[in-house]
Amino acid sequence: MATDGFSAVVLVGGESTRFEDGHKASARLGGRTLLRRVLDAADAASAGPPVLVFRSDEQRRTVLDAAEDVAGDAVGLAGDAEAFQGPLAGLYGALDAVETPWLFLCGCDMPLVSATAIDYLGGRRTGDADAVVPVDSSGRYEPLFAMYRRDALLGVEPSLPRAAGVRVLVDRLGSVESVPVSDAPEHVPLDAATTNVNTRTELERVRN
Known about the structure:
Blueprint: E1 6-11, E2 28-29, E3 32-33, H1 34-45, E4 51-54, H2 57-66, E5 76-79, H3 86-94, E6 102-107, H4 115-123, E7 131-135, E8 145-149, H5 150-156, H6 166-172, E9 176-180, H7 190-193, H8 200-207
Parallel strand pairs: 1-4, 1-6, 4-5, 7-9
Antiparallel strand pairs: 2-3, 6-8, 7-8
Helix pairs in contact: 1-4
């Protein structure tokens, strides 16, 4: 089992066009913004300060102004890599800010993320694995709540199309440790942790 430390990378760069009013990172659940909830879990689990990835400086200012409970946190900041689009732009944009051999990737819109679930994935790393990725009940990867070996990401970078999605990245990696959410112990809320919200309606479902 790998014992290397890992850094958390939190993607904030989506436009939140379906969230109606404001960026979803600054929406609140249980008295905390969604971004604050993710950072609390990441802080408790990762080896160093989490890295927040924004699409632009303007977005960074807007989100951090709105998510006032994040002000003053010791976090790394990064921007999207120009070579890619979507989540891959954020993932590869964060690599220069990550010094650990492994990174944990998640979105800012995962209100049920927990340090327990993150640590569980970290414990599933093996010496030859390039990634540790949950698999949902329908057999689909959950690549936006996953562990990645930094060197493996750099190794496949030249082969990835500009518009590639994260599942394409997972398919290109040499060795992926698949973790069915149904296999997680009862005390590890892995299935819940992979839940993301794109609309106010979805957030209300989580709240209720």
